[in-house]
Amino acid sequence: MNLQKIRVLLTYARNGLSYLLRGDFQGFARRWHSIKRERRMSGRITSLPQSILPGTLLKWCVMATPHTLFIGKLIARRLREHGWNVTLLTEAPEVFDHHFYVVVCPQMFRRLPPPERRFAYQMEQSVSSRWFTKDYLDSLRDSRGVLEYALVNFEFLEKHEVFYPHTYYLPVGADPSYGDDLEREEKIYDVLFYGDANSSPRRQKLLAALEQRFSVHRCSEVFGDEMRREIKRAKLVINLHYYENALLEMPRIQECISLGVPVVSEASQDQGDYPEIQSAVRFFAQGDEAAMLAAVASALNDPIPEETVVAAAEAGWRRFCFMFDRFLTGTQLLHPRHLLDDALPIPGDAERIALSLPETIQRRRSYDRNSVQGSVTFDGLRYSPGWIGCGLSYAALAKHGLRYSIDQLMVLEDDAWLPEDFLEKEAIIRAYLRDRDGEWDVFAGVIADLHPDVQILKVETYKGLRFVTLDKMTSMVCNIYSKNAQSYLAEWNPAEGDAYTNTIDRYLEQHAKLRVVVLLPFLANLREELNSTLWGIDNRRYIEMITETEQKLVEKTEAFLAMRRSEQTSLHS
Question: N or C: which end of the chain has fewer CB within 10 A?
């Protein structure tokens, strides 16, 4: 057994013993299950089928029903852009001889590829569980990975033991080139509805009301090129939910936007999860006939400009590419440089960013309930082990800051606890840092572990807050990074150490000339009801460490000030 494995086992034993000594048996069980799950999933991700030799040009097969062919084409295009061979089928092949498969709506296929080579793209809505049979859920659990299109569904899947790190968030995107091979069509329909209306009473009712006032063309059981041409012949497409309280029908909406056709849609609980479509879709209150008629009339009388729809399609494609590459990186089928080198799907001027994994849905929902005004949420990168994914996320965000010349890049982790007056304090902090430009590298909202050799460099009071400058830090919960620190982060290399020397905060700590500014008392803390994504540790354990660290820093600060007072007294005597 090598030294690193011995260190890992000793650390596991020490952490486990700490839970047992304080009587936290539930915490011990959670940590134990987290370790087992991470090890199991890491093995599944990193162990390729024996038929795949190093350097093999991967052969992919995308299986999609005629109803989901748009999504199949979206996936196939991105796979081909990475240089792989891709086959797109609407039926299962006679022989499963491809290296990997992405199966869209796997419950619709009688035969499925082998589990170790199958990625299942789950497209059903958890608001109606008719498709979530035992066999279907078993097929999801057995797959090499599960792609999920809707954030809302993660909560449902978790209850049925389909959860992180086995799951990957992949919202449906758009493809601006989707209609390039088609001729321009004359607009012969005011309003187009396509899909199943006959078996949905609520759709029938809304369409009947719409048809009394507008020319509406219904289209069903039409697929492929003819369906694309039908969409292009419409001035707009109406999107109506099959179920009450349904999620957005994103495949339909993104297909229309890809073809340059705007959409009028019923509102839904998850429409905020798709910021890229907001300019190309006009929403009306769910089930409200009067609001629907007003929205359609407005869209016909004051059409959404074609360039606006095109821009929405381009934004949808960029987001899809990032999220799909994020999945490929998380499964170690794609090198992380593809994500690090490209611009992120967040606004270029974003300087207050919440880092979150959407698959850890309880943490995401916790942050959403307590989100900071003006913050942008970034879907963190995935990798196994998790500390590498975390480091890659910070490297990507640092490159974002450097790309757009952001002087003070704030990154909040989604389990950060922030005071009610956070924005007021943040304004003072940013002013303090601006006044001392070039004299700091990182502002740390909280420090979890104080290095034994830490040195206090300066203590100042500014607008009622005490600022302490140190030469070391460990914690990434709520920090602000200068361009200098961003350069450090952007150069992080996962191959240069292990989980004890090269986690992103330890990496920063090792820089000899690092200047860290912190408030006393600390600005931030952790939410005690959540657990660590990386280590499966109850946050209450970290909060205990933070309390101890803060007290140590207070003592060191008082000793530093006492020494300075003594030095000044000596000078005057």
Answer: C
